[in-house]
Amino acid sequence: MLEQSCYDLADRCIAKHGAKPSSLIPVMEDIQDELRYLPGELLSYVAEKIGVSEAEAYGVATFYENFSFEPKGKFEIKCCDGTACHVKKGIAVIEALQKELGLGKDKHTTDDMLFTLETVSCLGACGLAPTMMVNGKVHPRMTPDSAVALVRELRGEES
Amino acid sequence: MTIASREDLQRARLDADREMKKQDVRVLVCAGTGCVASGSEAVYEEFRNQLEGREGISLSFAPHEHTKVAAVCHTGCQGICEIGPLVRIQSGDQVIQYVKVQPSDVSAIIMRTILHGEVIDHLLYHQQAQYVSPDDIPFIAKQTRVVLSNCGKYEPDSLSEYIYSGGFSALEKALFDMTPQQVIEEVSNSGLRGRGGAGFPTGRKWSQVARQKDPVRYVVCNGDEGDPGAFMDGSVMEGDPYKMIEGMMIAAYAVGAQEGYIYVRAEYPLSVARLREAIRNLEEAGLLGSNILGSSYSFRLHINRGAGAFVCGEGSALTASIEGKRGMPRVKPPRTVEHGLWARPTVLNNVETYANVPRIITDGAGWFRSIGSENSPGTKTFSLTGAIQNTGLIEVPMGTTMRQIIYDIGGGIKDGGTFKAVQIGGPSGGCLTEKELDVGLDFESVKKYDAIIGSGGMVVLNQSSCMVEVARFFMGFTQRESCGKCTPCREGTKRMLEILQKIVDGRGEMSDLDELEDLAQMVRSMSLCGLGKSAPLPVISTLHQFRDEYVEHIVDKRCRAHVCAKLRRFIIDPDKCVGCGKCARNCPAGAIIGAKKMPHKIVTDACIRCGSCQENCAFDAIYIEY
How far is B307 from chain A (nearest CA, A)? Predict the structure, then answer.
């Protein structure tokens, strides 16, 4: 069972965008911005409130890459593998982080819920490739070493 | 500030002018995504903190004549992202460009440059020569900035600065001196073509919407710049949001739409924030809403954030996404102009297209046609990235050659490398090589080489890029992003990706190349939407231009760029190996043989090229050969 505050959040988001089917994506985005994931129960709740079927809402939520039914870590790392980052060896940065965090293709979030590692296709700072984004902040000119150092620094701040 | 009439707008212009004249010095800190990433926000804060309450300087007004009024502003992308954070100090007509500015440089800049007008040499841009003014730097001097004219000069959030720069004079002219029909004619005559990639004539699109019977029409802006390696539209949205919005407003007036939507890519939080701020300011001023400038024209604007689906850059998928549905393209016709958002006639243009409109209205079609080439007038923005000296955002007349872009503007290949190819048009584009460097780039010219201008991503590749791997990379991207609705794209891209993967893994056969070509033609001709239709282009283009590299991967099992990991050969140096056996113990394939305390050997046929031997060797005895 989700906490009542989650449903309150959903109500606020629906009120902001209007209880109509076209609000589905903005409402889900706002919920995810706040909770850093999209709880399944909340999706069903929103679907009913704005008048779309549960199946349709699920279909939309799974179509778009950015919605996640799984809770994300406190630090959401998006490593860029866009063209510019790719040709500047961005893959090496991703591999170094996977190794450091014990994550891989099928596991994106660390067990302590501190880090989520995702690969994205372009962060729009191609002039400074390779780049990565941590909780919305773009970090330029990464190397495997500097990426690992950054993760260690974040982990240090937490403990 | 309410701007409810033409007179109010004229008054706002005088106010903006007066406000600007009060400022003795303008500190312009680049706040594009690139410079923000390099730390420009800290530089901005440092300027504000240090200037606040400083003797002899005021941030608002001058209490007496010895006080200098300084304005600290954010600006849109100043272009040379590579050497950010970028700061310009403007005093009157004189502008000094500083590069790589750190918060620790701020006090010197205030003391020496702002207070005493001195130039600080070590913060200037150096490349062969030293440049003081941004307009002298070859990277900028060789560009023609129309769409990006305000980037680097004005605060993107400030309505008053936009008005100062001439903002809303186009809307004013359209509303009061032109009929909607005349606006469409002007845009048609200008020859403006959609900057999103397809190059469809904008004026024709507008006139098609205008003549629909349905009285409800929409204007939609495609800001879902999804091509990896492209950030032009993002830079326009975050650097000069008002210009793009003014273009949309003019489009709405021309086609009789009362509502508009901007669809922005999720990965561009800065663009969303700046557009929201701009819309809020315009609503507050009454420039968005009912009876704009006292005319009978009303227009409202909404922002939709994308949610991470590349296919939403396609028109019908984009409108489906705004409607709250899965972003899947539909069969056309009917086209978006007849049956777009909410099944109504819809003008759908991309960011850069709209941003071109205001200047066409104020300066006329003739002016626009004086720039660029015969069939593709005007300028085009490109994001110049990859193995090049100066990476960044550029704008050049259509028809400019690749050589001018790479060598004159981009400063040539970085670190003395050799030019191999330039990939343009992203995952739907192709490669141009040395032979095509002197082709003037416009919508038609590059098609001959299986490339497209696309939205304007331009990635320069040097000898360390493997063209087969580049093709695999793009196919991996389009395959992931294929929405799955039509079989040719869903299955075709998957099969093509499998073949490419096989080749880069060293398991390719010569017959794979024919199969790739067949599949490419099939996917290209039979897919439902532009994503599938253009997905094979990177493969077709590299197969034609770099067939020998494919053959090398297949026949010689060799990757000349040293990129494809599965084509590496690990070799033990017998002079360094002490025969400790650690590599053999750790080899997952059991591919290392040798007696104890004797140099070991790797059996190439059994080796899976994972590299664990090299990682485990304490004596640095294992090297890679390609």
Answer: 5
B616 φ/ψ angles, rounded to the nearest 5 degrees: -90, -10
Contact B146, B379 (CB under 8 A): yes
The answer to whether B428 faces chain A, any CB pair under 8 Å, is no
Residue B188 confidence (pLDDT):
98
Interface test with B, best of A28, A67, A76, A86 (most B CBs within 10 A): A86
Whether the upstream peptide bond of residue A130 has omega within 30° of 0, thus cis, is yes
Tokens 């993107």 belong to residue: B156
Asked whether residue B403 falls in the same domain as residue B503, the answer is no
> Do β-strands B259-264 and B300-305 pair in parallel, antiparallel, or remain unpaired?
parallel
Contact between chains at A25 and B304 (C-beta distance less than 8 A): yes
Judged by CB atoms closer than 8 Å, whether chains meet at A127 and B393 is answered as yes
- Residue A64 vs residues A69, B136, B153: alpha-carbon distances, Å: 12, 45, 37
Give me B460's structure tokens: 């320069």
pLDDT above 90: residue B211: yes
CATH label of the domain that carries residue B580: 3.30.70.20
Inter-chain touch A126–B38, beta carbons under 8 Å: no
Give chain A's domains with CATH numbers: 4-63 (1.10.10), 75-158 (3.40.30.10)
- Cα–Cα dist B397/B400, whole Å: 6
For B509-535, what is each residue's pLDDT tens digit? 999 999 999 999 999 999 999 999 999
**Nearest-CA distance from B226 to chain A in Å?**
8
pLDDT band at B62 (very low <50, low <70, confident <90, very high): low
Angle among Cα B587, B589, B590 to the nearest 5 degrees reads 70
Same domain as B294, residue B192: yes
Residue B6 resides in a domain = no
Residue B228: per-residue pLDDT: 86
Residues in chain A, how many?
Answer: 159
* B295 shares a domain with B179: yes
DSSP character for A71? P
Pair (B166, B277) in one structural domain = yes
Mean of all residue pLDDT scores within chain B: 94
pLDDT at B48: 95
Interface predicted TM-score of the whole assembly (ipTM), two decimals: 0.93
CATH number of the domain that B191 lies in? Answer: 3.40.50.11540
Coil, strand or helix at B370: coil
- For Cα atoms B451, B452, B455, give the angle at the middle one, nearest 5 degrees: 140
Cβ contact (<8 Å) for B307 and A28? Answer: yes
Question: Is residue B387 domain-shared with residue B357, that is, in the same domain?
Answer: no
B473 contacts A140? CB cut-off 8 A: no
B384 and B363 inside one domain: no
Quick one: B212 and B345 in the same domain? yes
Confidence of residue B60 (pLDDT cuts 50, 70, 90): confident
Given a contact cutoff of 8 angstroms between Cβ atoms, the answer to whether B91 and B117 are in contact is yes
- Structure pTM? 0.94
Enter the tokens of residue B620. 């640095």
Give the span between the Cα atoms of B453 and B600, in whole angstroms.
53
- Residue-range definition of the domain harbouring residue B616: 568-625
Residue B63's pLDDT is 66
